[in-house]
Structures are given as C-alpha cells and as structure tokens.
Amino acid sequence: MADSILYNEDCIRAMKRLTNGSIDLILTDPPYNLANFMKGRDTNLKRMRDNFFGAAGWDDLSFEDWEKSMDEFFEESVRVLKKGGSMLVFMSIIKVETLIRIAESHGLYYKTTGIWHKLNPMPRNMNLHFVNSTEAWVYFTYGKKTGTFNNDGKVIHDFVETAVVTNGERKCGKHPTQKPVQLMEFFIQVLTNEGEMVLDPFMGSGSTGVAAKRNKRDFTGIEIDENYFQIATRRIHEVRE
After folding, report:
1. What order do you get walking across the sheet with 134-142 strand by strand?
2. pTM of the predicted structure, to 2 decimals
3. What phi, psi does 50 have (nearest 5°)?
4. Do 15 and 76 contact (CB within 8 A), yes or no?
5. pLDDT 10s digits, 183-237
6. If we measure between CA atoms, which residue out of 205, 201, 203, 200 comes closest to residue 174?
7. DSSP element (H, E) containing 207
8. What would the pLDDT profile of 136-146 be if each residue is shown by its tens digit?
C-alpha cells in the first residue's frame, strides 16, 4: 500500500524537513506569477471564473520576489532529490527561460520543454483573441543526464493531450489551476516505478497525490492553503489502490 505524508505549511519550510536524497520525482505546478500581468490585459477571465487565480493572493509577487522564491525552491529540490531523480514543473511559456536558468544554476540537467494541450479549454476571450489551450512543462534530471523513463520502447512525444479536469474532479474543490489526475498519472507512470516517492510541494487540491496513490507510488504533498489542504487530504485518503 502506498504511503502519503502531507504538510499544511509553506513549501520551503516543509521541504527542509525532508531527508536528503529521498525523492524520486518532483511533479508540481508552482505559481506562474501572472496575476499582475493578467490584471492589465484585455480579458474576460474574471467574469468567466469565480475563483480567478489573479485574485487569490498567491500569484501576485513582483518578478524579483518570484524569482527569489523559485531560487529557494530549486535549492531545496536538489537537496531532496535522489541522484538520477527527475523533476517536472508546469510553467507559463513566458517564464520558461527564467525557470531553466534558475534550475541549471542549482545543478539540474535540462531535458526538454513540452506542452500540455487541453482538449476542452474554457473558451474565455474567444471574441478577443485566440483561446488559450496550452501550458508548458519543463523536465529536468538531477545527478545524471538520464533518469527513469518508462516508454516501453515506444516514442513518447513532448506534446501531451488531455481534457481539463472532469466534473467529478472539479467538485472536489474548484482550485483555479487544478490539473487533471489523468495528466499527472501520465508523468508518474513514465518517470517513476512502483514504490518510489513522488513529491508535490504545491499540492493544491491534490491531483498529484491521487495519481501517485492510484499507481502505487508513495507521496509527499505540501500545501499552504488550509482549505485546499483539507480537500487534498480527503481526496488522497479516499483513493482505493
């Protein structure tokens, strides 16, 4: 049975409690720090989503403060990752270059940048410009140039398509940037083996934890918001392996 350890606190503080070299995969979706940028855009995003991320309070740092927070995050990440461990981080395309620069400064090996294509994105701004249906993800390894990669001899493209969260998942908490469990399962299956440890330092409503437990991986999750932490805890504990 997969084990789950969950922390309701700041991710850096919680990561400092983790043992050196104890994590096989960090799979996470940190703040993109786009709130201030989006507030100045011609957009109908807020009208179409009650829990608009720009009003959440955790995505509106200055660029300098966000960059510093990411630097601290990667510093702790390389400490807890095993040699040969992997890291996959979702990020806004306009921040990818900065993210790679920070990660490489801490010794992570940059593998590739890929795209998640949402098959049924919210049609926001459809009368203003192109509908946003993609998000980027960035893949690194630590200590080795190649980590676990379970492709079974098949070609796996860096273009991953899934629907956004299902109605059942959405009812679990309506996190404004919630990722579908199917998407997180895909990366967990490719980048880890059964019994290994997956860490999500920005757990949100717990999709990564649900995916890990369904696939017989151990999971450590960290979430600072008490409401989302409670939602994630319930979702993860309800999973039947």
Report:
1. 4-7, 218-222, 197-200, 23-28, 81-91, 134-142, 108-118, 159-162
2. 0.86
3. -65, -35
4. yes
5. 999 999 999 999 999 999 999 999 999 999 999 999 999 999 999 999 999 999 9
6. 205
7. helix 207-214
8. 999 999 999 99
DSSP string, 17-48: TSPTT-EEEEEE------HHHHHTSS--HHHH
Angstrom distances, CA of residue 146 to CA of 73, 82, 85, 143, 207: 22, 13, 9, 9, 26
C-beta atoms surrounding 52 within 10 Å: 17
Higher pLDDT, 176 or 14: 14
Residue 97 · residue 54 · CB < 8 Å: no
Query: Which of 154, 153, 115 has its CA nearest to residue 134?
Result: 115
Q: What is the b/e burial string over 57-96, where b = at least 16 CB atoms within 10 angstroms of the residue's CB?
A: eebbbeeeebbebbeebbebbbbbbbeebbbbbbbeeebe
Instruction: Report, as an integer, the average pLDDT of 165-184.
Output: 72
What is the DSSP annotation of 153-201?
Answer: T----SEEEE-S--HHHHTTT--TTPPPHHHHHHHHHHH--TT-EEEET
Least Cα distance to 111 among 136, 131, 141 occurs for: 141
Tens digit of pLDDT for each residue in 47-58? 545 544 444 454
